[in-house]
């Protein structure tokens, strides 16, 4: 599958068939996660693979009882080992890079899951202390996410995505016009008759900059 196809077809899947996921596919997913970038290449992610039914149910209970999860044949619990990252980057390492590195690994895994014809959903709603107790996770390790994985038994529609016009700015926050001169140069002020001059365009630009707090 092409990357573009995996990006556009990935969905959060919350219903799974009872066909078990092949071990070779789990390995591919874990390898994809391990290829993610990480601050200082510290690779703080750790993974627990859970297939035991009663253990999975305990995890479901610790995830605010999201019962749909139990249909998945395997869970990958994504953890961060914070020892090295804290040593290298102090508070910023533990609180910021640790989370971002694991998020990069998780997205890699979700794309690999899609490519393999499997489905999953990023689960971030959980009681961390409960999971630590259930899975015997030490203090220096934090829980980042759970990925319940299985063969999809649903085909959800594409969720709403904001357009780039909403999410992107040029040169400074809030500026949605890349080149104000290009926009205004041929702009007719009065019923198609009066072409505004470059001078007027300049004045309008200054006003917009003033209103948006941008320096002229
Ligand atoms: C950090 C994070 C935490 C999430 N936690 C949950 C969760 O606990 N339960 C759930 O059903 N979905 C969870 N989701 C999935 C989102 O609801 C989903 O990604 C979003 O609605 C967009 O849908 P899509 O993944 O199909 O594009 C989480 C997603 C992210 C990125």
Helix content: 40-55%
CATH fold-level label of the largest domain: NADH Oxidase
CATH architecture annotation name of the largest domain: 3-Layer(aba) Sandwich
CATH level-4 homologous superfamily of the largest domain: NADH Oxidase
What is the multimeric organization of the chains shown? single chain
Which radius of gyration do the C-alpha atoms yield?
24 Å
Structural class designation: alpha+beta
Q: What would your notes on this structure say?
A:
Helix 1 packs across helix 4, helix 2 crosses helix 4 and helix 3 runs antiparallel to helix 5. By secondary structure, the chain is α+β, with helices and mostly antiparallel strands. The protein is elongated. The chain is built from 8 helices and 4 strands. Helix content is 44%, strand content 12%. It has 2 domains: 148 residues, NADH Oxidase; 49 residues, no CATH class. The structure holds flavin mononucleotide. Flavin mononucleotide binds next to loops.
Task: List the keywords.
alpha+beta, binds flavin mononucleotide, 2 domains, 44% helix, 4 strands, 4-stranded antiparallel β-sheet
Outline the secondary-structure elements.
Layout: H1 3-9, H2 23-34, E1 45-50, H3 53-62, E2 74-81, H4 83-115, E3 119-120, H5 128-135, E4 141-150, H6 164-167, H7 180-184, H8 198-212
Antiparallel strand pairs: 1-2, 2-4, 3-4
Bound molecules: flavin mononucleotide.
């Amino acid at each position: 599958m092409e990357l573009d196809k995996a990006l556009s077809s990935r969905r959060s899947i919350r219903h799974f068939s009872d066909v078990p996921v092949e071990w070779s596919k789990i390995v591919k997913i874990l390898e994809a996660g391990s290829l993610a970038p990480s601050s200082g290449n510290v690779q703080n992610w750790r993974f627990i693979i859970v297939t035991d039914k009663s253990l999975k149910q305990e995890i479901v209970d610790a995830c605010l009882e999201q019962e749909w999860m139990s249909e998945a044949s395997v869970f990958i619990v994504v953890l961060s080992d914070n020892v090295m990252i804290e040593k290298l980057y102090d508070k910023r390492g533990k609180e910021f890079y640790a989370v971002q590195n694991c998020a990069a690994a998780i997205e890699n895994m979700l794309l690999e899951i899609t490519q393999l014809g499997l489905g999953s959903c990023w689960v971030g709603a959980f009681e961390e202390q409960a999971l630590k107790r259930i899975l015997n996770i030490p203090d220096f390790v934090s829980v980042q996410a759970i990925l319940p994985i299985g063969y999809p038994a649903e085909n959800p529609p594409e969720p709403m995505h904001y357009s780039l016009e909403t999410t992107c700015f040029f040169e400074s926050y809030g500026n949605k016009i890349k080149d104000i001169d290009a926009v205004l140069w041929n702009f007719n002020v009065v019923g198609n008759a009066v072409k505004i001059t470059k001078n007027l365009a300049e004045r309008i630009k200054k006003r917009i900059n003033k209103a948006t707090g941008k320096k002229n």
